[in-house]
Write a structure and sequence with these properties.
This is Reverse transcriptase. With 251 residues, the chain is of the alpha+beta class. The protein contains 4 helices and 11 strands. It folds into 3 domains: 49 residues; 63 residues, SH3 type barrels, CATH 2.30.30; 76 residues, OB fold (Dihydrolipoamide Acetyltransferase, E2P) (Beta Barrel), CATH 2.40.50. The longest helix has 45 residues. The N and C termini lie far apart (62 Å).
Length: 251
């Protein structure tokens, strides 16, 4: 009996250590994201002191706020005030850049104070992060029109039981996979949604729609461990390259 009890205690202790390790790892991911946000805020404070430069081809977020028209009750709302990623295609004067917009296919001029560097989908600035230099301008005096935005920029927020909020009317409500865990041999991923909430979802629920996000996360984890990337066939590699290009040009 004592041996069985000792084994049970050892199993519980091992499970506790695993759960603690997973919690610490998830916390580290959150801290890393917050550090990126802090760096962006620091750049914002120094923009009037340090000239921000972008190179041709750089992916960027573009700030544009759209106000609901008076008396209009929209079913679908814009999910973000920072849109993209779009691509820098040229420089205009000292403080503006030409940005390629793919919905529809056109090029617009954007002041540098409305641009932020794109470092991944989950680095999209929060909606309430309004550039300081823009606050004094007209709310909608920006380079984009609603017709320039893809359909996935619009979402429908649903309230369930007067408490929980979900997202509907979009085929891409997830932005990033940020962590992974295994419970009872079932693999789950911590997914970041387009309203910046996180949920643990089984791998089966993510596939195949979010297979690209899962692959990106797994490749990044292997790189951190010094392991080679997962090998793919040339056909899949070519398809993935096309998807990566569309991620920039068709956002």
């Amino acid at each position: 009996m004592e041996t069985i009890k000792e084994q049970a205690i050892q199993l519980l202790a091992a499970q506790y250590r695993r759960e603690l390790h997973k919690s610490l790892r998830d916390a580290r991911h959150v801290v890393e994201r917050q550090l990126i946000k802090a760096q962006d805020r620091h750049e914002k404070r120094l923009q009037h002191q340090v000239t921000v430069h972008f190179e041709i081809g750089d992916p960027v977020w573009v700030y544009q706020f759209f106000r609901d028209r008076r008396g209009e009750n929209r079913i679908k709302k814009l999910a973000f005030s920072w849109h993209g990623p779009y691509r820098i295609v040229g420089k205009v004067g000292e403080n503006a850049y030409s940005v390629e917009i793919s919905h529809p296919d056109k090029v617009v001029t954007v002041n540098v104070n409305r641009l932020k560097k794109f470092r991944g989908r989950w680095t999209r600035p929060f909606t309430d992060e309004v550039p300081a230099e823009v606050e004094g301008e007209g709310v909608e005096d920006g380079p984009l029109a609603e017709t320039d935005l893809p359909s996935l920029s619009f979402t429908e927020r649903l309230t369930v039981a007067q408490e929980d909020t979900g997202i509907a009317s979009t085929n891409k409500p997830l932005l990033e996979i940020v962590a992974k865990r295994t419970i009872n041999r079932s693999v789950e991923y911590l997914a970041l949604t387009s309203n910046y909430e996180t949920f643990w979802l089984p791998r089966s629920d993510l596939m195949p729609s979010y297979g690209a996000l899962v692959t990106m996360f797994e490749q990044a984890e292997r790189k951190k461990k010094g392991l080679p990337e997962l090998r793919r066939s040339s056909r899949l590699a070519d398809a993935n390259a096309e998807v990566d290009e569309d991620d920039i040009l068709m956002a």
